[in-house]
Write a structure and sequence with these properties.
With 184 residues, the protein is mainly alpha-helical. It has five helices and two strands. A two-stranded antiparallel ribbon has the order 1-2. α2 runs antiparallel to α3 and α2 packs antiparallel against α5.
């Protein structure tokens, strides 16, 4: 259990110092480069993947009756890394707004997943008060995975040219039009 905690803490914190370009070695554009220089998307993806994988392994172990100490430790540490790993990396890169957005997405999606999992788990046996506990854990893991995916897709755009959108409302000839105008 102690080894799993130390390893997970090391993995979560090691992503904080990961950078694709350093001042001593400037990044060079290559033909197959998928990330802009200075992007740390791959670090957050790796930390999220490790956290979700560890928590899922722990949850599978608990569901199948394996060693509860090891499985519970994996579940706890994995959930912690999946929930807080990427926001810590965002903070380490000086992106407090992205850290807040990342944590907010994870918290909301995990809560929604937990509620859905609880409802699904209590569908068959509503007499037991803890009938949906295992479903809650699975739902929380699914929600954390969704939050991690949203983080990787939405919070790593460093391009200088972003689309600009604005709402539009016009009224004429007895017709009111509501829409969105944008520059791409």
């Amino acid at each position: 259990m102690r080894t799993a905690l130390c390893l997970s803490a090391y993995v979560a914190l090691s992503g904080c110092w990961y950078r694709t370009a350093t001042p001593a070695s400037p990044a060079r554009a290559t033909v197959g480069e998928s990330e802009p220089s200075g992007s740390y998307r791959s670090a957050t993806i790796v930390v999220d993947a490790i956290g979700v994988a560890a928590a899922t392994a722990g949850l599978i172990g608990l569901s199948t009756g394996r060693d509860e100490d090891v499985s519970g430790g994996l579940l706890s540490v994995g959930m912690g890394v999946a929930a807080f790993g990427a926001p810590i990396i965002h903070l380490a890169h000086g992106r407090a707004g992205r850290a807040g957005g990342s944590y907010g997405m994870r918290a909301m999606s995990a809560t929604m997943g937990m509620l859905v999992g609880y409802a699904a788990g209590c569908n068959a046996n509503r007499e037991d008060w803890l009938c949906g506990f295992e479903g809650m854990l699975w739902g929380t893991m699914g929600g954390l995975a969704v939050g991690a995916t949203l983080d990787a897709v939405l919070l790593h755009d460093d391009s200088a040219e972003r689309p600009a959108f604005s709402p539009t409302v016009s009224h004429g000839d007895g017709i009111t039009r509501v829409g969105i105008a944008g520059a791409f």
